[in-house]
Amino acid sequence: MPTEFPAKSSAEADLLAVWMKCLPDQPEQGRQVIERYAEPQRRYHDTRHLAAVLGWIDRLAGDHDLFLVRLAAFFHDAVYALPPGQVTNEEASARLARRELSRAGLEQEDMNEVARLVRLTATHAPGARDPEGELLCDADLAVLAGTPEEYAGYVAAVTEEYSFLPRETFAAGRFEVLSRLNQRDLFRTAKGRALNDRARANVEAELESLAAELGIVVEGSGP
Questions:
Q1: What does the pLDDT read at residue 2?
Q2: Does the first or last residue of the chain, that is N or C, have fewer Cβ atoms within 10 Å of its Cβ?
Q3: pTM of the model
Q4: Topology of 10-214 in CATH?
């Protein structure tokens, strides 16, 4: 019978319960992964974000391999160095996933798939016929489809997370990321497509605000 490890909060206990459904023989490993999301530099990419992504996976899921998608969700922001190190945070998280899941005894094919899914969250652009990639990316981006108040809270948290950057540098980087996302449908799963319009309205409103701040003239938006 797996050993039970106490969590620091009810939120972490809930996350650990989801982990145990995936890897019931690895409670300590799960606790260590979850603790990464409580690092002090995180303001948005924290345990609340992890719980939200896992929740959206369940809400958007269809005929998907949820075992691997959930594991990828646990690892997708497991490394979150600010600023990133010699490799991107997504690449570092993918490498961590491979190391930890190897210790857990997963098959090579499954480890490769989890690492691949983690890397996808760098661009949120899965290829054709990639239902698991679509599901993880949609769950990670679902925050974009919140109410205006929820979206404002998300933006405030991300802004605080990157407060070590000069404001103009952050705003320019944020504008570039959102502009790239705004050139395509944000959500690709069957259930996620219903979120596209609301998310686009939020993203375009923020782009307009950033453009005004940066003195950028935007001729058009959307695909």
A1: 38
A2: N
A3: 0.92
A4: Catalytic domain of cyclic nucleotide phosphodiesterase 4b2b (1.10.1300)
